[in-house]
Specification:
By secondary structure, this protein is α+β, with helices and mostly antiparallel strands. It folds into four domains: about 70 residues, no CATH class; about 110 residues, PAS domain (Beta-Lactamase, 2-Layer Sandwich); about 70 residues, Signal transduction histidine kinase, dimerisation/phosphotransfer (DHp) domain (Helix Hairpins); about 160 residues, 2-Layer Sandwich (Heat Shock Protein 90), CATH 3.30.565. It has eleven helices and twelve strands. A five-stranded antiparallel sheet has the order 2-1-5-4-3, sandwiched between helices. A five-stranded mixed sheet has the order 7-9-10-12-11. The protein starts with a helix and ends in a 7-residue tail after the last strand. The N terminus is likely disordered.
């Protein structure tokens, strides 16, 4: 009778084990069953012990608690992965399939579906980065860790591979020793912006070094002449000193522009409560350049073609500096007694600033390049126009940081009109 009960118990335990294995796909549960319940079964080499029904009930209760804990830990593990900002993927090198991944990874590589849709699938079904796939193929027999850089879907990705060894908390009854579970963790980073920033930084350094060379050479040459003790007239001495001062001012402007460009990094995300009023920025910018315009007898007019003052979200100081640079550029290339016209309109969901001058105009073939750093339309021909070659580049960076645009329309010999836009705040809170 006891043997029959034991056999029925064994069958019951087998069914429970199979059911749990199918539901949870977890070797730990099977190990738990074999270590906790199989010792209760009678051994053929020994007399049958009396059944301890209380012990069996306690074991089933412990088994239930362990299964609940495993299920809870699994949910906790999935929650942690899903709320990890960094894209990650867990890979099983033995079964050669995906154990888990988070939504951030799917978004990064532009793959549809939910994370659970990709569990138990192979990595090559998810992505095709040869170096990463080769690494995963080797992890079944290698502990090597890697760092991969690859271009994928228009992005430069950095992928770090790390082998995880997790000790199993339970051992198989038939096993002489426990082997740790091996999983591979792939951590993904989009370093596209970092790569571009490094390239832009190297280019900027090279250009700045080139721009510094000319004024420094001039300052050094005139200073050495003054120190040589040569007999110079008072007029020559004054001319030399004015040249040194002019080049020192040029260096100062260049340094200030470079520092301003550096500050633009990280300003794309503005405080959602920071309001920017284009009309106020224009008025402030006019005040800044009034003295320079007065020296050339230039008149600046401002016409606001809006019933209400438009409001945007952004950094008012940066936007004002962009308007100052456009006005400064117009003053430099305008003739004496010219008029510079500024208008502010609202077109769709954008505030549009238009600044028109009567300068020499810009050739059509160079209009697309004038917003590049250190690019100058006239090259070295017009020595009377002082500038660093960064003013319009700053305007372009400010416009992009605010989600706006800047462009120019010009006919050679008929002046130029610059346009600067900024998206408006959708809901205005007065």
């Amino acid at each position: 009778m006891e043997l029959l009960i034991c056999l029925l118990l064994a069958c019951l335990l087998g069914c429970v084990a199979t059911c749990f294995l199918k539901r949870h796909h977890n070797k730990k549960i099977f190990a738990l069953i074999t270590t906790r319940l199989l010792p209760l079964l009678p051994s053929s080499a020994k007399p049958l012990p009396p059944l301890d029904m209380v012990g069996i009930a306690q074991t089933f209760e412990a088994l239930s608690n362990e299964v609940n804990d495993l299920h809870l830990n699994n949910k906790l593990f999935q929650t942690i992965l899903n709320h990890t900002e960094q894209p990650v993927l867990l890979y099983d090198p033995q079964d050669k399939n995906i154990v888990w991944l988070n939504q951030q990874l799917l978004d990064l590589i532009n793959v549809s579906g939910k994370p659970e849709d990709w569990i138990k699938k192979t990595p090559i079904e998810l992505f095709r980065i040869t170096s990463a796939l080769d690494y995963l193929d080797k992890t079944a027999s290698s502990d090597e860790e890697i760092k991969i850089q690859a271009n994928y879907s228009g992005h430069t990705l950095e992928i770090k591979g790390e082998l995880l060894k997790i000790d199993q908390p339970f051992t198989f009854a038939a096993a002489s020793q426990t082997k740790p579970i091996r999983l591979v963790l792939l951590k993904w980073n989009d370093i596209t912006r970092d790569i571009r920033a490094n390239e832009s930084g190297r280019e900027l350094i090279a250009n700045v070094a080139h721009q510094l060379r000319t004024p420094l050479t001039s300052i050094k040459g005139y200073a050495e002449t003054l120190l040589d003790g040569q007999a110079l007239t008072q007029e020559d001495t004054k001319r030399f000193l004015n040249t040194i001062l002019r080049n020192a001012d040029r260096l100062n402007r260049l340094v200030n522009d470079v520092l301003f460009l550096a500050r633009l990094d990280g300003t794309e995300n503005f405080d959602k409560n920071a309001l920017l009023k284009p009309a106020s920025c224009i008025s402030s910018a006019i005040e800044v350049v009034t003295e320079e315009a007065f020296k050339k007898g230039i008149t600046i007019t401002f016409e606001k073609n809006t019933a209400h003052e438009p409001v945007a979200i952004g950094n008012a100081h940066l936007f004002e500096q962009a308007v100052i640079n456009l006005l400064d550029n117009a003053i430099k290339y305008s003739k004496k007694s010219d008029i510079i016209q500024i208008t502010l309109d609202v077109v769709g969901n954008e505030a549009v600033i238009k600044i028109r001058d009567n300068g020499p105009g810009i050739p059509a073939e160079t209009q697309a390049r004038i917003f590049e750093r250190f690019y100058r339309v006239d090259g070295d021909k017009n020595k009377t126009v002082q500038g660093t070659g960064l003013g319009l580049a700053i305007v372009n960076e400010v416009a992009k940081a605010h989600g706006g645009r800047v462009w120019v329309e010009s006919i050679l010999g008929q002046g130029a009109t610059f346009y600067l836009t900024v998206p408006l705040k959708k809901q205005l809170h007065q």
